UniProtKB/TrEMBL annotation:
Coiled coil: none annotated. InterPro entries: Cupin_HpaA-like_N (IPR047264), Homeodomain-like_sf (IPR009057), HTH-like (IPR037923), HTH_AraC (IPR018060), RmlC-like_jellyroll (IPR014710), Tscrpt_reg_AraC-type_HTH (IPR020449). It comes from the Bacteria. GO terms for molecular function: DNA-binding transcription factor activity; sequence-specific DNA binding. SUPFAM superfamilies: Homeodomain-like (SSF46689), Regulatory protein AraC (SSF51215). This is AraC family transcriptional regulator.
Length: 313
């Protein structure tokens, strides 16, 4: 089956969604049937500019398409799909399992925190769980992540991060064992060797390091050795947004997190995120989210389950 040109492959946030990241969290967890049954169990080939998928199939069959190559697999197994990898799924209707989606800032944080083991999120990979120990530990971690994610409680963010770190370590150990069913994309012309993807990855890293200073796109492009026009062209081609939109999305995400998880005032959050005055921050937030910062905070605190990703479609 020939692979469509990269520019014709749709770039989604979550499959079938065009909205911003649905919650202040940098993590999304749902069962595989929750979304796939809405699409007749067939998730057509697509890619994500800034999301990493970790799938755990407890049982059932799936035809996984990676970069145009089909792989017929049976659970239990894990699948890792890094940002910008072209992927699609056709699931059996009796499939059981979960899909955990990490926003790129969280994936990068885990990579820094875990060192080489964190690179398990940067490689396209699938692994059969044919050893009782790893299979049991991974299934337990995924169940704990799902339960904690759906029922927010005190210390939720810290516990989720700890559980995700443990899961990534387990994934790294699977890779290290070199199971025969492992698959990695290393052919010439893959995204790891593509200069455009490298520039986008470096640009996202610069955003993560500097977004609170609100640098100009010209400044960020200069740090990459690019013109702002070239950077914008790359962002629109590979991420389907302008360079400024990517910067603003990261600012908005951080604002949502601060409004949800801290008691900082609107003015303090405005200062933290580099706005010259709270009124400007309020206009920025309302333009991108549809709510004033105050109204957003009230909604989050009044009904936290209203924004659970399983309901945010």
């Amino acid at each position: 089956m020939p692979t469509a040109p990269a520019t014709s492959v749709p770039v989604f946030k979550l499959y079938g969604e065009t909205r911003h990241w649905p919650t202040p969290d940098l993590l999304h967890c749902e069962s595989i049937p929750e979304r796939s049954q809405l699409h007749d169990w067939n998730i057509r080939p697509h890619r994500h500019a800034d999301l990493v998928h970790v799938l755990h199939l407890a049982s059932g069959d799936v035809t996984l398409e990676l970069e145009g190559m089909p792989h017929h697999l049976t659970g239990p197994l894990t699948i890792v799909v890094p940002a910008m990898a072209i992927h699609g799924f056709r699931f059996a209707e009796d499939v059981q399992g979960h899909i955990i989606t990490l926003a790129q800032p969280l994936a990068e944080h885990l990579s820094h925190a875990l060192g080489e083991q964190g690179q398990a999120l940067a490689r396209t990979d699938f692994q059969r769980l044919d050893r009782a120990g790893p299979a049991r530990r991974i299934a337990t971690l995924v169940a704990q992540i799902d339960e904690e994610y759906r029922q927010p409680a005190s210390g939720r963010a810290h516990l989720l991060e700890a559980l995700i770190q443990a899961l990534v370590v387990e994934l790294s150990r699977l890779v290290e064992r070199g199971r025969p069913s492992s698959h990695r994309t290393s052919r010439p012309g893959s995204r790891a060797n593509d200069k455009g993807h490298e520039h986008l990855t470096n640009f996202q890293a610069l955003i993560e390091a500097q977004y609170r200073q609100q640098p100009s796109i010209e400044s960020l492009a200069g740090q990459l050795g690019l013109t702002s026009a070239h950077l914008n062209t790359l962002c629109r081609r590979l991420a389907d947004r302008s360079a400024l939109q990517l910067l603003h999305e990261r600012l908005l995400l951080e604002a949502k997190r601060q409004l949800t998880y801290t008691n900082m005032t609107i003015g303090q959050i405005s200062d933290l995120l580099g706005f010259s005055e709270p009124a400007y921050f309020t206009r920025f937030f309302k333009r991108l989210s549809g709510f004033s910062p105050r109204d957003f905070r009230l909604r989050q605190h009044a009904a936290p389950n209203d924004v659970a990703p399983g309901q945010a479609r």
